[in-house]
Amino acid sequence: MAQPSPPYSLGFSPCPNDTFIFHALVHGLLGADFPRFAEPLLADVETLNEWALAGRLDVTKLSFHTYGQVMDQYVLLNAGSALGRGCGPLLVAKRPLVKHAKLSALSIAIPGRHTTAALLLRLFAPQCTKLVPMRFDQIMPAVASGVVDAGVIIHESRFTYPQYGLVLVQDLGQWWEAVVGLPIPLGGIVARRSLGDEAIRVIDQAVRASVRMAVDAPLAAKSYIRQHAQELDDSVIASHIGLYVNDYSENLGAEGLAAVREFLRRGSEAGILPPLSAELPMIGRSDGG
Which fold has domain 90-180? Predict the structure, then answer.
C-alpha cells in the first residue's frame, strides 16, 4: 500500500487546551519547513478514540486508555500530551449519595468506554460495574437529575460541577498520584506508524513548535479557542489551559514516559488492556529527547 503523504489528516478535541496547542499548526503559522495538514476534524474525546481504533486519521489526539489498544498502529509523539498533577478526572455525586453509599451499588456515568477516566475508575474501584457511557458534557446534568447516581467528569467540568449542586466523591487523579507517585497521563497525540520514522519525527517537531508558539503568544489563539468554546467564560478557559497545558505538553520527558508506561502496565495487569510484552514498545521520540 502506498505510504500517506502530506497533507496529513488530523483530529483533536474542541477543548481549549487542544485548540490552544494546535492553533499555530492548523493556521499555517509554523513556516514552510513544517509539514502540511488537512482541515482538522474536531470531535469529543470518545469519538476521537473510536476513530483511532478504526485507524481513520494520520495524526490524532486520543485517550491513553485507547493508546494501549492501538500501539500496533500508532506511535506516541513527545509533544502535545495532556498529563500532570492535580488535573485528573473527578468522581462526583448528588449530596445525598456522598455519605454511606457503596460504590458497587451505584450507576456511574463515564465519558466513554475508551477514555482514560473510565480506565482510572476501574483501577480505583474494580467493583463498579454499573457504568453508563455518555458524552462528557451530559454527565453533570444526568447526575444532577438523578438519571445516574454518580459520574466521572473531565475537562472543564472540574471547574463547574458545584454549579450543578454536586460534590466530590473522589479525585481520581489525586488517588493515582498518591498510589503511583507519577503524574496522571490523560491524553496524547499519536501518528500512524506507517508514515515512517522520519515523517513522524517532523510531525512531532511541528506539534512541539505549535505548543511553543502558543505559550509564547497566548493571545494569538484567543479567537480560535473562543470559536470552539462559546459556552465557557474566559476564566474557565484560562483555568482549563493553565491546568492541561504544561511542560509535558511540549515534551513528555522521562517522567511523562514513565507515567504512560505505568498507566498502560496497570491497565494490562487488570485485564482491561491487551497484554504487554516485557518491555513497552518504543514510544515516539524526536531530537533525541
Answer: D-Maltodextrin-Binding Protein; domain 2 (3.40.190)
Q: What is the rounded CA–CA span in Å between residue 34 and residue 52?
A: 24
Q: In this structure, which amino acid lies at residue 246?
A: N
- Select from 34, 36, 44, 40 the least CA-distant residue to 187: 44
Cell numbers representing residue 21 in the block: 496547542
Contacts of 69 (CB under 8 A, 6+ apart): 53, 114, 273, 274
Compute the C-alpha angle 217/245/5, nearest 5°.
80
Task: List the one residue out of 71, 69, 175, 76 whose CA is nearest residue 113.
Answer: 69
Domain positions in the chain: 10-84+183-269, 90-180
Amino acid at 102: K
pLDDT of residue 182: 97
Q: Which three cell numbers stand for residue 136?
A: 462528557
The CATH class given to the 10-84+183-269 domain equals: alpha beta
Residues in the chain predicted with pLDDT less than 50, given as ranges, are 1-2, 98-100, 281-282, 284-289
pTM metric for this prediction: 0.91
Among candidates 289, 61, 269, which has minimal Cα distance to 180?
Answer: 269
pLDDT per residue as tens digits for the range 47-81: 999 999 999 999 999 999 999 999 999 999 999 99
Q: Which residues are catalytic?
A: 155
| CA-based R_g, the chain, Å | 18
* CB contact burial 229-243 (16+ within 10 A = b; e otherwise): beebeeebbebbbeb
Instruction: For residue 279, count other CB atoms closer than 10 A to its CB.
Output: 7
- Grid coordinates of 163: 454549579
The x, y and z cell numbers of residue 132, run together, are 453508563
